[in-house]
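Example 5.3 — PH domain-containing protein
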Amino acid sequence: MEYKIKPKELSFFSIFFVVMLWNVLADYLGSSILLFLIVLLFGTGLTSLRFSFEIHENHLVYRTFLLNKSIIKKEIYPPQINQLKFTRVGWAKKAAIIKTDKALNVRLAVLTPKTAYDHLMEFAENHDIKVLKTKDYLTLERMR
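Solution (predicted structure tokens):
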């Protein structure tokens, strides 16, 4: 099943970064239309990043899209996973961290719909993957 990852902070930080980049480059290089277009193109690229996460029967897939074209695809198989860590982010949001052997860990903080974390737990149970739940996460589970 496919889940969307919608980081709300990404658009805010990308706008902030583009404004700061424009100010710094304009101070050093002077204002020009070409510089403005380059910074605008860079900002558009940042705001058009999308992420998805899929749970299949025998593996997990994490994808990064730029303008609806897949630029990064990471397939994670159960033998590659050391641990699934469920934690809390923010005030009342769930998150999961997939800790892998050799590759970078995958952090899943804003999956929609919320049932994704339950499906991820089922995947871990089916494949005998070590699961760690923090106290904060257990508190969130009791609240809902």
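Remark. The first strand starts at residue 2 and ends at 5.
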